[in-house]
Task: inverse folding
């Protein structure tokens, strides 16, 4: 069905493409952003949606510091927090929460948002987080020509990692990413924070699905992210007490 088909059983639900965050107002209807319906049906799959083929590496082996190997018993339990669709006015709040918990994360940013909030993009790097490319303006890449895909990517921030909008991937995109030396990075746990389900639900999506090595999807853009900010703070308090540490992906 959808052109995407991440080589995974369920192609992303392909929510209506839209321009995340852009319109300000923060109340984009439905704002599916990365919501992707459920590209990755399930927070607990434990694998990347795109894993089934030899993708350019959609694995958190991207981890720095040699913590990629999840070992539930020894060593630190590592989570990879990721925030998509920013930077926006919520980015500083997210940065504040991360700093409070001594957490590092990865921000998959849009070129058009960086144009709007260049200082916030700089602040993310300055704080020691990593930045991934989420394209120029959040188009679903598989529906584009090769040259348009390349243009979308080049309009995003410079990075070693690409997270395609909606998690939508096809073979053309894979080969372009390969060619550009970009790792495709999806996620293991979708918090669905963009649906604004309430702080408690976002918090439990993070906490209940935490497992060492997992990549968690959240958003600092695409609409009002107040719930995400509060839920993140609570979840990091709980998970820190359980021995988790939070690292950036090597992007
Ligand atoms: Zn997105």
Result:
């Amino acid at each position: 069905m959808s052109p995407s088909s991440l080589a995974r059983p369920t192609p992303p639900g392909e929510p209506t493409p839209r321009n995340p965050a852009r319109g300000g107002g923060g109340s984009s209807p439905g704002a599916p952003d990365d919501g992707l319906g459920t590209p990755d049906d399930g927070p607990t799959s434990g694998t990347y949606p795109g894993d089934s083929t030899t993708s350019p590496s959609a694995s958190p082996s991207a981890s720095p510091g040699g913590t990629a190997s999840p070992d539930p018993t020894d060593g630190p339990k590592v989570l990879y927090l990721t925030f998509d669709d920013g930077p926006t006015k919520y980015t500083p709040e997210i940065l504040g929460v991360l700093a409070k918990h001594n957490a590092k994360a990865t921000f998959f940013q849009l070129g058009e948002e960086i144009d709007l909030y260049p200082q916030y993009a700089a602040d993310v790097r300055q704080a020691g987080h990593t930045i991934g490319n989420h394209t120029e303006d959040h188009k679903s890449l598989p529906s584009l020509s090769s040259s348009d895909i390349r243009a979308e990517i080049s309009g995003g921030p410079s990075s070693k990692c690409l997270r395609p909008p909606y998690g939508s991937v096809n073979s053309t995109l894979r080969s372009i990413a390969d060619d550009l030396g970009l790792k495709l990075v999806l996620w293991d746990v979708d918090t669905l924070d963009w649906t604004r389900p309430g702080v408690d639900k976002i918090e439990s999506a993070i906490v209940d699905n935490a497992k060492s090595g997992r990549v968690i999807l959240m958003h600092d853009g695409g609409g009002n992210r107040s719930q995400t900010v509060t839920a993140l703070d609570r979840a990091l308090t709980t998970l820190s007490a359980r021995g988790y540490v939070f690292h950036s992906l090597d992007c």
